[in-house]
Design a protein that fits this description.
By secondary structure, the chain is an all-beta fold. 0% of the residues lie in helices and 67% in strands. The chain has a 16-stranded antiparallel beta sheet that branches.
Length: 220
């Protein structure tokens, strides 16, 4: 349902020029001082915020700090990083416009549209400048025929690499690889396993189980 910006008093649209970005936002209602750059402004009900690099929709969004540096969103969040072409959904979000760091929490889904990569976790921290995402808790990443799971992962969008650890597992079609740590090049599909390596691969129509244990020295 579309918001009526001018038809009713509780709806509004405000455009604020903030160097070096322009912030536009809309909602059903607002609390705070829209003209103040140092106090908090809260948007409630179908809240929407757009900067030069980020677009966010949520149940509520709060802008605070000098020049509205910090954006905090809550409830049914969906959005897009316009600079790196990454789409996301989550339950809560905090975004620092100066450091370009976004922290997404609660049933997070992050999609790299350009590379057809979809990541899921309970917490994802994404750095817009480095294009690196840190995934934590119930990590799952889908790419081509890869299904990657673990407790912690590092996804590098530029390099197209994935480092996953904590009961790490990668499934490639009918092949499965498990280890303490798994590195995967998402372009070449090269995979590196280290620490308690186990796996099963299908070859010539027969499932061959290959298991081995290896001890990794912790170089100081």
């Amino acid at each position: 349902m579309k918001k009526l910006f001018l038809a009713i008093n509780i709806s509004f649209f405000l455009l604020i020029s903030v160097f070096p970005e322009t912030i536009s936002f809309a909602a059903d209602s607002m609390m705070g001082q829209a003209g103040s750059k140092t106090s908090s402004t809260k948007l409630i009900g179908d809240a929407y915020v757009k900067t030069d690099t980020m677009e966010i929709e949520a149940d509520s969004i709060e802008l605070s700090g000098e020049d509205y540096r910090t954006i905090v969103a809550q409830g049914h969040i969906k959005g897009k990083n316009l600079e790196t072409n990454m789409e996301f959904t989550c339950n809560s979000l905090s975004y620092d416009r100066m450091t370009k760091l976004a922290v997404l929490q609660g049933n997070v889904s992050l999609t790299d549209i350009e590379n057809d990569v979809k990541a899921e976790a309970q917490i994802i921290e994404y750095n817009q400048d480095t294009e690196v995402a840190v995934l934590q808790i119930q990590v799952k990443l889908l790419q081509k025929n890869n299904v990657c799971t673990g407790a912690y992962a590092l996804y590098n969008k530029k390099a197209q690499t994935l480092e996953i650890s904590g009961n790490a597992q990668v499934k490639q079609d009918e092949d499965t690889f498990r280890a303490q740590q798994i590195s995967l090049n998402l372009e070449t599909q090269d995979i590196t396993l280290s620490g308690n390596v186990k796996g099963s691969v299908k070859d010539d129509g027969t499932k061959k189980e290959a298991k081995k244990e290896e001890e990794e020295e912790n170089a100081q």
